[in-house]
Write a structure and sequence with these properties.
It contains 10 helices and 2 strands, in the order αααααααββααα. It is mainly α and about 270 residues long. A hairpin with a 3-residue loop joins strand 1 and strand 2.
């Protein structure tokens, strides 16, 4: 099978599995949890970290937030302590992500607290899957269309960034980290992602206004691209092309989810604000 056909076929299977998981709250929670475990493994492999403690930690964090959110939603009674806990996780996740972005632009060593092996794992990887789950349960009940809309925007952004960059890209975006990414590709992805926001608002989820979906599209494009660059730097430091080989033609699951992993806290923050 040609590489392009293999990439298309495996990509469609991945999309199909994701869409099927949106049928029920439980199936989506299980898929998000499974994706989180796989990405945890691939992330730790890139950093050469070993030990079952990482997976127990991820499981504990995800189950704590998912089950607690589900419980308070089911009794329709918000809890101030749990809301504060979510806000704390969000603040720390965004704080850590800012330093990860800073690390793209400087050769200086990261602050000591960021070199602790569990800090990035908790507030970059683990928390992102918590926020993916929380986005789908934002309004007190399971609404799969919001997270589906976010993923569609991610897919559109990535696809058109690749298409435009390959055909028209000349100016490198971040050559030292990702030689194939171009400014033209980024702008093409952003443009079509913003166009797609109107389609998502009209046909996928009309609980959020078109203007707000447009803002989400910008968040997805900008922070998704940063997430892609951060993962590219991790792979470059580890001298590997892909984070894994679970998706033929695409590499690892971390390779496919790096954009939404980095963008999810910012999407959740914006949705909370509106």
């Amino acid at each position: 099978m040609k590489e392009s056909n293999k990439r298309l076929f495996s990509g469609l299977i991945f999309i199909g599995i994701f869409i099927i998981s949106l049928k029920t709250h439980l199936s989506f929670a299980l898929l998000t949890f499974t994706f989180g475990l796989i990405c945890s493994y691939e992330f730790n492999k890139l950093l050469n970290e070993k030990g079952i403690g990482f997976y127990l930690l991820f499981s504990s964090i995800f189950i704590l937030f998912a089950t607690t959110e589900y419980y308070f939603n089911s009794i329709n009674q918000p809890n101030s302590f749990f809301n504060d806990l979510k806000d704390t996780l969000l603040i720390l996740s965004i704080f850590v992500s800012i330093f990860l972005v800073r690390d793209l632009f400087t050769s200086k060593d990261l602050p000591k607290f960021l070199t602790k092996k569990y800090v990035n794992f908790i507030f970059y990887i683990s928390s992102s899957f918590v926020f993916m789950y929380l986005i789908a349960n934002l309004n007190g009940s399971f609404n799969p269309y919001i997270i589906l809309g976010c993923f569609i925007l991610i897919w559109v952004n990535d696809s058109f960034a690749y298409i435009v960059g390959k055909n028209f890209g000349k100016q490198k975006l971040f050559y030292s980290i990702s030689p194939h990414k171009t400014v033209e590709g980024f702008l093409g992805g952003l443009f079509f992602c913003c166009l797609c926001a109107s389609v998502v608002s009209r046909y996928i989820d009309d609980s959020i206004s078109t203007s707000n979906w447009l803002i989400i599209a910008i968040i997805v494009s900008v922070f998704g691209t940063l997430g892609d660059l951060i993962e590219s730097k991790l792979k470059r430091q580890s001298n590997v092309k892909d984070s894994g080989a679970i998706i033929p033609g695409h590499g690892g699951l971390f390779d496919r989810l790096d954009s939404i992993i980095f963008a999810s806290p910012y999407i959740y923050l914006f949705l909370k604000l509106i």
